[in-house]
Amino acid sequence: MADLFTHLGEDFMERLGDGLPSKNIARGTIIFMEGQEGDHFFCLLRGQVRLFRSTGDGREVTLHMVEAGDLFAEIVLFERDTYPASAVAVEDCSIRAIPRERLLGLLSEAPLREEFIRNLVGKMRFLSQQLYVLATMDVRQRLARFLAVRFGQVPLITLDLNKQETAAAISVRPETLSRALAALKDEGLLGWSGKTITVDPRFWKDI
Question: Does the keyword Transcription apply (predicted)?
Fold first, then answer.
């Protein structure tokens, strides 16, 4: 998915982060929790962050995998003063916290404001697609889509996530993913050894 601010230009991004410090975050660190009060959103400078919500039965539903260069937690800019989801560092990260007032000041300029709104609509479309995936795709389809979006439909993948993190990324329990992987291996469709995944072309038909 294209980031919300991708098309706002380098000048805008430089002004947005001008003079603000960055912070190193260790893998596995919770950046903020669902329901936590906040008046900052974040720019991910390095690494990867997972946004998720927790269900009543203890499952974590992944909303988005944030990549380096993306901004996240923008909801606190307008709608509310609490984070509607949690964020965890999937790997060692560097982030920059940006106060709400910094962006609101830049949005007083009409061209930036209009482009911001267009990109916000695009992000809403993406989240709608995520809900569709969760509602209609089984674990095989979710895994195939996740790998295809992240790496392309290639025969050999070097994955930077472990199986537990991958399960969280596609919003299934680790044991559910393990059963699916065992079945895929038996069928000769996918093999997972260490950080390497070998993929038979037939696997991609599940997307």
Answer: yes
Q: Phi and psi of 35, rounded to 5°?
A: 90, -10
Q: What is the pTM of this model?
A: 0.67
> What phi, psi does 41 have (nearest 5°)?
-115, 180
Domain edges within the chain? 10-124, 138-204
3-state secondary structure of 82: strand
Angle at the Cα of 15 (from 12 to 18), degrees rounded to 5? 150
Determine the CATH number of domain 138-204: 1.10.10.10
Please report which helix (H) or strand (E) contains residue 102, including its range. helix 100-106
Q: Under DSSP, is residue 168 helix (H, G, I), strand (E, B) or coil?
A: helix
> CA nearest 78: which of 51, 52, 41?
41
CA contacts within 13 A on the Cβ side of 201: 0
Residues 31-90 have pLDDT tens digits of: 999 999 888 889 899 999 999 888 877 778 888 888 888 888 887 777 668 888 999 999
Dihedral of the alpha carbons of 35, 40, 44, 49, in degrees to the nearest 10: 0
CATH number of 10-124: 2.60.120.10
Q: How far apart are CA 175 and CA 67, in angstroms?
A: 26
